Amino acid sequence: MKMRMKSGAVVLVLAGALLLSACGGGGGGGAHPSAATGASASSDQIKIHNFMYSPMSDTVSPGETISVTNTDPVTHTLSATGGQFNTGDIAPHQTKTFKAPMTPGTYHYICDIHQYMMGTITVR
User: Fold this and answer.
1) CA 122 and chain centroid, separation
2) How many domains does the chain have?
3) pTM, whole model, 2 decimals?
4) 123 domain residue, yes or no
5) Which of 69, 95, 111, 117 has the most Cβ atoms closer than 10 angstroms to its Cβ?
6) Domain of residue 91, CATH code
7) Neighbours of 17 (CB within 10 A)
8) Residue 65 lies in a domain
9) Domain that holds residue 97
10) Per-residue pLDDT band at 43 (split at 50, 70, 90)
11) Looking at beta carbons, which pairs linking 68-74 to residues 24 or more positions away fall under 8 Å?
């Protein structure tokens, strides 16, 4: 029984590591096009579909407007784990917007309702 529990824990740790590595992006240079071109009144989009954020990781400019569209048949949120931004409830087929923080850094977010849904926004 102990061996079965240990191997189950190992599987969970490995699955979590794979999920985090998938969320973390692919290494260098993946700046968002609006950040690379210096567009001033840019807008970025995150889509919620099948209980996942797409993209799960994004890079934006300070103060950039980010729109979040929920295509699922249930309500979701997009809330920074540190409290820097929160869309509130996003009903099915609704779009809400928020402004990216002005301070550069990486901000982790979740759905307050379905806390296994997560992603990151990097402000550069």
Assistant:
1) 10
2) 1
3) 0.67
4) yes
5) 111
6) 2.60.40.420
7) 10
8) yes
9) 40-124
10) low
11) 68/95, 68/96, 68/97, 68/98, 69/45, 69/94, 69/95, 70/94, 70/95, 71/47, 72/48, 74/113
